[in-house]
Design goal:
The chain is of the alpha/beta class. Helices cover about 40% and strands about 15% of the residues. It folds into two domains: about 270 residues, Vaccinia Virus protein VP39 (Rossmann fold); about 70 residues, no CATH class. The strands form three sheets. Strands 2-1-3-4-6-5 form a six-stranded mixed β-sheet. Helix 1 links the parallel strand 1 and strand 2.
């Protein structure tokens, strides 16, 4: 790319740790990426994974005071748990270095913040791809188990209802003559197709049609794309075109499916490696009746050798029933269960991220207060469980790139 050429723009809404950016990087496709995520734990991880460790000079060059940092971050309506905005009082209790790290991550990721406070003109011009993996909590089967049936009802005012914030912005694009993104890419749980939720999903597709998009819905399972995890998710690719040749190409396109490598490639069971042993110990829960039931109810992934080809879906918590699967752990301590859960490192690997990504993130962990680390095991598990399998996204981006190449004149790329 020549120095005076501009990179193509992509916006990752609800970006999490950046599985879309990771997929593009693995394909050597270069985009000017802006993200949108209110979760501090997610966009800080995104920054480290995709921009590298923050150097000491970044801290030294920051001239904002502690109070100015608090005011800036509080004004963005950010969250530390993905559920509620963090209070200014709580942010003020953090040490200055922690605030600088978060501020730096916000800037380096070109974060647009909380979608509820975003206006259409805050978004960059000439977006080629806009991705929106909006929160799944109110759509998932797990949510239904806890009596949450609100889904993506327009009046629900819940986390999954953030979908309609995307609609608001796109409608304003149209209203104020701002160029709509050429491609939209949605990802969410398969349960969006259920009887309870499909009328809302169809409503959303119809809204996009009125804006000029052609929609193609896919249900894709990670275990068919080189990752030994049974993880079925619904994707929808929307393209701003009604050209018959493009539509026929999309309708007749078949993704390149891949066989899965051995599951042992994703497990870290060599406990002679100190970091793997420490991580395994942290994922070895205390013995209890409920943990005995977890042991009885869930698949055993590994017992001196792999016992299954695929783990179950990685969710936001491993110490639960059901979970992704458990590993026999003869090295357990006194009062501990005979098994361990997947470690956060293994969860990241099963989502298609590299071991170096995880090592850099752990090396960049920080204390927000005296002896209080920002990233605990549970938060790292949540980051992995909320992500998207990178390998699946790679195949979708290959399709998008093929459309760009084959229909360049039609789409005016």
């Amino acid at each position: 790319m020549k120095n005076n050429e501009k990179k193509t723009v992509m916006v990752e809404m609800f970006s999490g740790i950046g599985s879309q950016a990771k997929a593009l990087k693995k394909l050597n496709l270069s985009y000017d990426i802006h993200i949108l995520d209110w979760d501090i734990s997610a966009f800080y991880a995104y920054d480290i994974i995709h921009n590298g460790k923050q150097k000491d000079k970044l801290l030294q060059d920051n001239y904002l005071s502690h109070n100015e940092l608090v005011e800036f971050l509080a004004s963005k309506h950010l969250s530390t748990n993905g559920k509620h905005p963090v209070s200014k009082k709580y942010l003020a209790s953090w040490n200055t270095e922690a605030l600088i790290k978060v501020y730096t991550a916000y800037k380096r990721t070109k974060n647009l913040g909380n979608i509820q406070y975003l206006e259409y003109n805050d978004l960059p011009d000439n977006i080629e791809i806009l991705t929106y993996s909006f929160p799944c909590q109110d759509l998932s089967i797990g949510g239904a188990w806890h009596g949450n049936m609100t889904g993506i009802d327009r009046e629900a005012n819940n986390r999954s209802g953030m979908l309609w914030q995307v609609e608001r912005l796109l409608l304003d694009f149209k209203k104020y003559n701002k160029t709509l993104p050429k491609f939209l890419l949605m990802e969410n749980v398969y349960n969006i197709n259920s009887e309870r939720h499909k009328h809302n999903f169809i409503d959303w597709q119809n809204q996009l049609k009125e804006l000029g998009y052609y929609n193609k819905v896919y249900t894709l399972d990670a275990c068919k794309f080189g990752i030994p995890q049974s993880r079925k998710r619904t994707f929808m690719l929307s393209i701003l075109s009604n050209n018959d040749n493009i539509i026929n190409y999309i309708e007749n396109y078949n993704f390149n499916e891949h066989s899965c490598p051995d599951i042992i490639n994703f497990l870290r069971t060599d406990y002679s490696v100190e970091k793997y042993k420490k991580e395994a110990d942290k994922s070895n829960p205390n013995k209890s009746d409920s943990r005995d039931k977890i042991y009885q109810d869930n698949i055993i992934i590994f017992d001196k050798h792999p016992l299954v080809k695929n783990i179950k879906t990685i969710t936001t918590k491993q110490d639960r029933n059901p979970n992704s699967g458990i590993i026999e752990y003869p090295e357990h301590g006194e009062g501990k269960s005979r098994y361990r859960n997947l470690t956060p490192r293994e969860c990241f690997l099963f989502m298609g991220f590299d071991e170096n990504d995880y090592d850099n993130l752990i090396a960049s962990n920080f204390n927000i207060q005296n002896n209080k680390e920002f990233y605990k095991r549970e938060k790292l598990e949540r980051l992995a469980g909320n992500s998207i399998v990178v390998n699946v996204l790679m195949e979708i981006f290959i399709l998008i790139n093929n459309i760009k190449h084959n229909f360049k004149n039609i789409m005016d790329f």
